[in-house]
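F.,

This is the one I mentioned.
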């Protein structure tokens, strides 16, 4: 989980354009990084790969497990299942009541592990308090862990040989790549040290050659850290926590958070209004990282299916 508090879940390349900023009347206006457009291109590629596999008699399959009636989780699961079906993947949703026992849930996962029609298994978090989420994640077969949360996959990521990259950080890397953001030697600051976003994000940026600072809720003078960043990734679960005064002019700002503000509207962990006047490029909320997270889930699922097909060929 995020070290600050859990944020919501967690979207042809464009050439780099300097710092991407435009000036209007003395104000800097950041270029918007469109997660909807990029995710659409990635989904098209997944659909083509799925069609090829299906032609060989292997239809990529994803099982999404939902426990309880959490409204936000239901929306996320519905979106994931719909995205799978649209891309030509086989998808099943298994929903269980909140009072299911841990042992019962683990037995369902064991069954999915053995099902050759299922190449990826995703358990929607958070789980009810009486169920140990770590135990559940470890029960998923590592080769079907398309979320990339299993301890063996986390270890492979740490050593630079990932089997699966966690979907949200993977999506962020694709966004940076599509924008032509130079990462080798860049100062990258990640705010939020969760296992789901912050830590794997830092690992991926490190592997790309960036110098990475990982901040958490104990960080002293957070603004002093964020103002050094050429690339700033914010995943804290705190609405509008980072404002324009905490952003280096011309920086690339990636907002992973999704929150509902007091006005009822969706907002990120970055104050978009002020930060977009300072940054060179910035992701919006909604329409930024969110669509990329689901797109990369599809990529991980198709990769799992391709590996399985290769193993049985």
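My design for it:
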């Amino acid at each position: 989980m995020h070290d600050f508090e859990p944020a919501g879940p967690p979207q042809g390349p464009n050439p780099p354009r300097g710092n991407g900023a435009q000036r209007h009347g003395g104000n800097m206006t950041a270029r918007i990084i469109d997660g909807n457009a990029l995710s659409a291109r990635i989904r098209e590629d997944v659909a083509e790969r799925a069609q090829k596999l299906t032609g060989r008699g292997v239809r990529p399959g994803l099982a999404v497990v939902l426990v309880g009636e959490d409204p936000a989780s239901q929306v996320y699961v519905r979106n994931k299942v719909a995205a799978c079906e649209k891309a030509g993947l086989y998808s099943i949703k298994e929903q269980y009541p909140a009072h299911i026992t841990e042992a019962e849930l683990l037995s369902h996962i064991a069954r999915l592990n053995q099902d050759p029609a299922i190449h990826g298994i995703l358990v929607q978090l958070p789980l009810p308090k009486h169920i140990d989420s770590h135990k559940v994640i470890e029960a998923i077969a590592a080769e079907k862990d398309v979320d990339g949360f299993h301890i063996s996959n986390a270890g492979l990521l740490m050593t630079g040989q990932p089997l699966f990259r966690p979907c949200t950080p993977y999506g962020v890397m694709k966004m940076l790549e599509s924008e032509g953001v130079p990462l080798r030697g860049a100062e990258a600051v990640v705010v939020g040290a969760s296992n789901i976003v912050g830590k794997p994000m830092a690992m991926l940026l490190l592997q790309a050659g960036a110098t990475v600072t990982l901040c958490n809720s104990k960080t002293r003078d957070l603004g002093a850290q964020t103002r050094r960043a050429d690339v700033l990734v914010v995943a804290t679960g705190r609405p509008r926590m980072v404002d324009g005064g905490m952003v280096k002019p011309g920086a690339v700002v990636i907002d992973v958070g999704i929150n509902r503000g007091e006005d009822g509207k969706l907002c990120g962990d970055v104050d978009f209004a002020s930060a977009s006047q300072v940054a060179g490029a910035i992701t919006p909320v909604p329409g930024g990282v969110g669509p990329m997270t689901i797109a990369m889930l599809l990529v991980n699922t198709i990769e799992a299916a391709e590996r399985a097909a290769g193993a049985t060929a």
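The CA atoms of residues 64 and 122 lie 5 Å apart.

Talk soon.
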